C-alpha cells in the first residue's frame, strides 16, 4: 500500500501541493489524480517517484518510509506523457533498459536469458509482439506509449505512475489505449496512479479519483459517486456543473424551483448542481425556457436556454434534446430535470436561491 500523509511541496515561496493525504491499496487498484492545469497533480506524482523533495509529511510504500530512498531504489515504474523512449535503442533495447534495473531481494541482476524471456512476455502483453527489433523513431504515438508502459513494468515495480499517458494521442487511439492500459494493469496486478485533466479518462481508468484544485485534495471518491455527490462547488465546477440551486431533501427527493429529482441523501438542505445535460427537453416538463442557441451533435442537441421566473431572475443554462426534438433559437420549449445528470452537494445551502452561474458563486 502507498500512503501519503500530509505532504507539502514548495517551489520557493509557492505551495505546489499542500497537506496531501491519500492511500492506494495494493494489487490492481488505480487512483487518478484529476485536476486543472497547475493544480499540483503532477507535483504529487513526482514527489512519490522521488523527483521532487517534500517540505513536510511522509510517503510510505509497503510500510517503507521513502524519504531517504533514492529514485532508482524505490522500485516504481514511471510513464511520461510523451513516453520518453531512448531514440538510439530498439524497442527491445528500451525494454532491456528497464530489465537492467531489476534486482532480486539479494540485489542481484536478472540473468540475460531471463531478461530476454521477460522482454518477449512484456511485448506480447502490450500488443507489440514481433516489434522488438524495430527502431522507436518509426513508432506511432500509441505504439510508443505501449513500449514505454512495457519498459516501466519490466522490473516488476511495486507501483506504476503514469503522467498524462494518453493526452498526446487522438481521441480514437486514446480510447483504445485506455482500455489496454486498464487491462494490462489488472493483469499485471500492479497498483497505479494516473495523472490526468481529462474527466472521461479518469472515470474510465480509475477505481477512485482524487480531485486536486490549487494544490489541495478536495475529494476522493469512486467515479460514479464523484459526479453524483461532488464535495463542494469547486469540485462541481471542475466536473462541468455550471449552476447551483437551493434544494430541500425529504424522503429521497430533492425539490428546487425547477422541479424534483430522486436522490440518495439524508433529509435536509442541499444544493443541486446543474450541468450541460441536467435539463432535457420534455413536452410537459415543469420548466419553461427560451432557446438562445443550438448545436447539432451526433448524439443529439446541445442548447443554451434562458429560464425566467427564478427567485434571482433570469438564468442562462445548458440543456439537451434528441435529434428529433424541435428547438430553434427564439422558440419557447419545456424542460425537465434529469436526476441522472444532476449533482447534489449535501448540507451546503447557497447564499441565495438564484441559479448561480459558474464563476459567480464562491468556492465551496
From TrEMBL:
Keywords of this entry: ATP-binding, Nucleotide-binding, Transport
One GO molecular function term? Answer: ATP binding
Q: Name one Pfam family in it.
A: ABC_tran
Indicate the segments forming the ABC transporter domain, all copies. 2-239
Q: Which SMART domains match?
A: AAA
Q: EC number(s) on record?
A: 7.6.2.9
User: Which EC class does it fall in?
Assistant: translocase
Q: What is this protein called?
A: ABC-type quaternary amine transporter
Q: Which organism is it from?
A: Lolliginicoccus lacisalsi
Amino acid at each position: 500500500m502507498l500512503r501519503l500523509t500530509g505532504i507539502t511541496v514548495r517551489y520557493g515561496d509557492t505551495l505546489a501541493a499542500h497537506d496531501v493525504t491519500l492511500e492506494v491499496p495494493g494489487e490492481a487498484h488505480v487512483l487518478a489524480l484529476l485536476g486543472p492545469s497547475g493544480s499540483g497533480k503532477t507535483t504529487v506524482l513526482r514527489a512519490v517517484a522521488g523527483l521532487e523533495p517534500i517540505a513536510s509529511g511522509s510517503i510510505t510504500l509497503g510500510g517503507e518510509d521513502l524519504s531517504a530512498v533514492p529514485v532508482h531504489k524505490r522500485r516504481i515504474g514511471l510513464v511520461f506523457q510523451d513516453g520518453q523512449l531512448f531514440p538510439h535503442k530498439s524497442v527491445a533495447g528500451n525494454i532491456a533498459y528497464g530489465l537492467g534495473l531489476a534486482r532480486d531481494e539479494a540485489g542481484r541482476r536478472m540473468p540475460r536469458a531471463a531478461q530476454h524471456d521477460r522482454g518477449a512476455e512484456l511485448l506480447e502483453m502490450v500488443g507489440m509482439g514481433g516489434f522488438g527489433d524495430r527502431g522507436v523513431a518509426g513508432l506511432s504515438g500509441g505504439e510508443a506509449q505501449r513500449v514505454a508502459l512495457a519498459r516501466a513494468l519490466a522490473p516488476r515495480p511495486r507501483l506504476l505512475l503514469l503522467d498524462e499517458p494518453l493526452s498526446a494521442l487522438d481521441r480514437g487511439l486514446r480510447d483504445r489505449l485506455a482500455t489496454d492500459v486498464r487491462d494490462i494493469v489488472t493483469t499485471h496486478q500492479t497498483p497505479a496512479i494516473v495523472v490526468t485533466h481529462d474527466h472521461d479518462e479518469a472515470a474510465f481508468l480509475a477505481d477512485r479519483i482524487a480531485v486536486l484544485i490549487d494544490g489541495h485534495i478536495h475529494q476522493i471518491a469512486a467515479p460514479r459517486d464523484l459526479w453524483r455527490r461532488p464535495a463542494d462547488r469547486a469540485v462541481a465546477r471542475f466536473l462541468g456543473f455550471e449552476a447551483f440551486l437551493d434544494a430541500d431533501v425529504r424522503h429521497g427527493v430533492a425539490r428546487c424551483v425547477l422541479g424534483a429529482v430522486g436522490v440518495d441523501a439524508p433529509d435536509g438542505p442541499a444544493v443541486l448542481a446543474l450541468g450541460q445535460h441536467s435539463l432535457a427537453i420534455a413536452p410537459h416538463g415543469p420548466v419553461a425556457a427560451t432557446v438562445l442557441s443550438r448545436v447539432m451533435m451526433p448524439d443529439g442537441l446541445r442548447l443554451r436556454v434562458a429560464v425566467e421566473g427564478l427567485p434571482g431572475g433570469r438564468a442562462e443554462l445548458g440543456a439537451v434534446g434528441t435529434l428529433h426534438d424541435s428547438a430553434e433559437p427564439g422558440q419557447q420549449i419545456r424542460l425537465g430535470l434529469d436526476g441522472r445528470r444532476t449533482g447534489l452537494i449535501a448540507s451546503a445551502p447557497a447564499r441565495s436561491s438564484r441559479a448561480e452561474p459558474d464563476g459567480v458563486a464562491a468556492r465551496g
